[in-house]
Amino acid sequence: METPLQQLQEPLLQEQGITLSIKREDLLHPEISGNKWRKLKYNLQEAKRLKCHTLLTFGGAYSNHIAATAAAGKAFGFKTVGIIRGEEHLPLNPTLRLAASSGMQLQYMSREKYRQKDDPALLQELSGQYGQPYILPEGGTNALAVKGCTEIVQDIHVNYDYICCASGTGGTVAGIIAGLAGEKQVLAFPALKGGDFLQKEVRQLVYNYSGHIYVNWHLIADYHFGGYAKVKPELLAFMQAFQEQHHIPLEPVYTGKMLYGLFDLIRQGYFPKGNRIVAVHTGGLQGNAGFKERLGVEV
Prior knowledge:
Rossmann fold, six-stranded mixed β-sheet, 299 residues, 44% helix, alpha/beta
């Protein structure tokens, strides 16, 4: 499934001699959008091959991955279980309401126990409890997710020099790097603090999938705005101006921060004149309702 490439027209780009296009992955599916569709695609096929009837996964209360997995289960005939970090809060926030309305069973887990989510003993306990489900990691990142994300670059049919993407668990950027196989340049914009960990994680994901170590990518770790899901007025002002000018909806956790950082780099002359850039919109727009409810901020 291909998504459109939307070229932006803006004075800054003309001044700097840059061509910038947005890869509209947010348009892949109304509920399983962007990188979540890519990450789930081959995992769903594997779950069917293994004759698993239930998908079980992990996430925070505002997780795009939780919402997307629930929607995918409803669309493709799986039961779904979401292990949610922290205590239950009622009424449910918009993300968990969406998940529950798609039929997902929500199980809350203390933050202390949740930190053991990759422990084999806990996974075995959950497998027994839910009838041997197909288990997806937090964020949906595994080798099959990386495989799905390689297809982002396969479906770009214009020439370009850089591809830019926001990064959480590293799976999407790892897929892009693996898909390019050493070609072009990749810039990843982490949504979280702690770039050193992500650097190692992405490198390992790429190597596990492809058997290669590529050096044509860099983390741009200066635009997380204080950490995951944190915002500042200048980010919200940028998003509002961008949406009004280009009619592309953004969210403040991933793509909004990535584009803010990208425009800042362009303004600083980071890219040589004549460079062509593709920025990947990874979706996640469902989170805007929860962001507004939680912080009282319009996005």
